[in-house]
Amino acid sequence: MTTEQNVLFTIFGGTGDLAKRKLYPSLYRLYKKGIIKEQFAVIGTARREWTDDHYREIIIETIKDLIVSEEDAIEFASHFYYQSHNVNDSEHYVSLKVLAEKLEARYHIKGNRLHYLAMSPDFFGTITQQLNEQGLVSDTGFNRLIIEKPFGHDYETANILNEQIREVFDENQIFRIDHYLGKEMVQNISTVRFANNMIESMWNNRYIDNIQITLSEALGVEERGGYYDKSGALRDMVQNHILQVVSLLAMEPPAKLSDIDIRNEKIKALRAVRVFTPEEVKENFVRAQYDVGSNDDILLNKYQNELNVAEDSLTETFVAGKILIDTFRWKGVPFYIRTGKRLSEKGTQINIVFKNVPLNLFSEDAEEKLPSNVLTIFIQPTEGISLQINTKKTGIDLETETFDLMHQHSAETLANSPEAYEKLIFDCLNGDATNFTHWDEVASSWRFVDAIRKVWDQDKTNLPSYPSGSMGPAESDALLAKDGFYWYWNPISPDENEKK
Ligand code: NAP
């Protein structure tokens, strides 16, 4: 596990928010674990004219909550070098190459290069092309490319981007980040399924009634209004994170837990997701936008009044939908998904709702439904798992009561568990692509999302709204109610939701 890796990282967007908040702290954690130690160097590059010294000060600032001693932080930061660079200017790649070769010699790095594109995807094509043309893709060692989301704006733009990148890098050299796949409990989905016969043997349409996935955010768009207004919840959350979770839940058991086997099964599952006709989109998907409201007695603005958002914006900040997977295993089992901003609580959870017992022996009315068994996987901020079951209420009468068998990771475990980005960079260093998204997965996801987008883009009527601090619009509850279901996770009761 802790074999030292020798590698040269080049971080494009080295002055940016992602690099500072996620990448540098993750590299430091890997350094503390001895995964990168002496034979590594980092080139940070962006347009700002920083010196190496200033860059190193920034690095130390970004890891200040993690450092054990000042000497240690200085030693870590001494591996970082800065090169001012406009990615559109080919001259700069020449000096980048000179620096890369100098650092490889200094740190005895054997040609292993990890190019991290932590900047807008608009530049990905240019950067990869220049890396190739100016000879920055080394002949020895590995060359890997990590790229951030969003991967395209729709299938067409994603395909163009992919073709540009594929001119230089093979699919097995491309690591497309979906940071949800670095989360402990998302990775735990496979363990829960494949390490428990009781669960896997019931993981099908004979026993499962429906599956619900909620990715709920309490915050609004904050300073990201400019980006978000062009994207919306469907592209920002459903195309990537939600469909990735769906594929892990829906895939068939892989022959082995290797990246190739798992990816093949995920790809098959995503290909089986039904791409809706316009009529089916209207029936199965709802969107909405947050209105004024309150949370914890704080008054909240409506979306159209947010910074850099058009006053007449029709961008959705909430999506709920029903996904259907046309396989033997899942025929007839709806996967309900919902995601939104400014909801009452931040949290990601999956609820697997099992079918009811055929008769209720505990009621005079045998048709009266008992509460369903529900397996819940808590992804964030709580990490854990629970199972809702019915038992006998203590007393002389034969009454039932429902409670949860619950396991939650302790605060200590959470504090010591690797950050998503740390885990993903570690996997990339090991050439393990399990937790990255293959092009075929991206392509299937866009085809599904594009069909919905097309219908919504043609409809210029106002969107339904929901009060900030609620769990979304009434249309979201109605979507499940018409199938005889309800959202199992309800941080606030439907009555309260209505009142908001
Ligand atoms: P950001 O803060 O705006 O950083 C962009 C970086 O690109 C800066 O370092 C900027 O530095 C550099 N840059 C811009 N134009 C350049 C050019 N022509 N030549 C060279 N460098 C240039 O963005 P970010 O939030 O870090 O996001 C980066 C990527 O990660 C995006 O694809 C985003 O969608 C994705 N992402 C970010 C987060 C997050 O938490 N921030 C989360 C998920 C995904 P200069 O201005 O100095 O040139």
TrEMBL record:
Q: In which pathway does it act?
A: Carbohydrate degradation; pentose phosphate pathway; D-ribulose 5-phosphate from D-glucose 6-phosphate (oxidative stage): step 1/3
| Keyword Lyase on entry | no
UniProt-annotated binding residues for substrate? H179, K183, E217, D236, K341, K346
Q: Where is the Glucose-6-phosphate dehydrogenase NAD-binding domain?
A: 11-188
Q: Would I find Electron transport among this entry's keywords?
A: no
Sequence similarity: Belongs to the glucose-6-phosphate dehydrogenase family.
Descriptive protein name: Glucose-6-phosphate 1-dehydrogenase
The gene is zwf
